[in-house]
Amino acid sequence: MAIKETGLEVNADKTKYMVMSRDENAGRTHNIKIDNIAFERVEQFKYLETTLTKENSIQEESKSRLKSGNACYHSMKNFLSSLCYKTNLKIKIYRAKNFACFLYGRKSWSLTLREEHRLRVFENKVLRRIFGPKRDEVTREWRKLNNEKLHDLYFSPNIVQEIGMRW
Asked: What pTM was estimated for this model as a whole?
């Protein structure tokens, strides 16, 4: 519902605001009220599917992206480990589905080493599922691929490199 009396249009459904400032007390004493509509001050909110915080922290957004990426991964886990499909097809589908979850809004990100590590761990988990275990030539035992061998098999840029690229 939009109210327009004083030349200022107010959307009554959107009654929240956030102050971003280095000064911790900025905006604490101000109550915003227009045409008897009070605006609530919040510490974070979602805008265009991106979580914005007053500290402009990437941690909450990174957690949210990992959560959606994990949900996507679990929905296609059986497909990724299936022997019926070629590895190249599985990689293409992984990149199409999971990268979309992670890369939305990435141009505004500045990743910390901790977030980079989390993203790489997630990607390694998916790639291990895609490539499967390998049999050791000497011991004849099945083993998970270590990170080095995994990246030798995967020729595409990793997820952290993709986030840093400009499109």
From this structure: 0.64
